[in-house]
Amino acid sequence: MNTITKKRMKAFMIDLAVSTAVTGVAEYFLRKKIKSEAFHSLVTPVVVMYALEGAQLRKSGQTIGYKKLGLILENENKGPLTNDQLLKRMVYRDTWSTVKYLSERKEFEQNAGSIFPHDEYAGTVVQEV
């Protein structure tokens, strides 16, 4: 496994831990207003993770995990990241990315871990700082 791939996995775990903590705080306040347990199990974690990740990547191209591990997300055209790109990247990552990566693993390993299926789909690249 490539160095960038390992760093990306560790960064995702850090971001997941941060998102889980924020979700816990959000649920504490939302439980008084929204009584549906399904909402708190399905909707809240996804909305919190997408909002945190989107805001951080839009602002600096890095999440907390990316900063800790020295990674940055960039537009493959060297322009600024767009909201559309970030949303496409997150949704694709959480739906079809794993299936595509497992079926075409050798192709993605040639990129040294800087481009995964969701990066290819959204037109982004992960680089070391």
Overview of this protein structure:
The chain has 129 residues and is mainly alpha-helical. It is 69% helix and 8% strand. It has helices at residues 3-30, 37-60, 64-69, 83-95, 97-103, 105-109, 117-122; strands at residues 71-75, 124-128. The longest helix is centred in the N-terminal third of the chain and has 28 residues, at 3-30. The two termini are 19 Å apart.
Give a short summary of the structure.
It contains seven helices and two strands; from the N terminus they run αααβααααβ. With 129 residues, it is mainly alpha-helical. The radius of gyration is 16 Å and the shape is globular.
| H/E topology pattern | HHHEHHHHE
**Would you report the number of β strands?**
2
If you average the pLDDT, what whole number results? 94
Instruction: Tell me the number of helical segments per DSSP (H or I, 4 or more residues long).
Output: 7
Which strand order spans the largest sheet, edge to edge or round the barrel?
1-2
Radius of gyration: 16 Å
For the largest beta-sheet, the strand count, sense and barrel status come to: 2 strands, antiparallel
| End-to-end C-alpha gap | 19 Å
Poorly predicted regions are none
Structural class call reads: mainly alpha
Query: How does the overall form come out from the CA principal axes?
Result: globular
Tell me what portion of residues adopts beta-strand conformation. Answer: 5-15%
Helix percentage: 55-70%
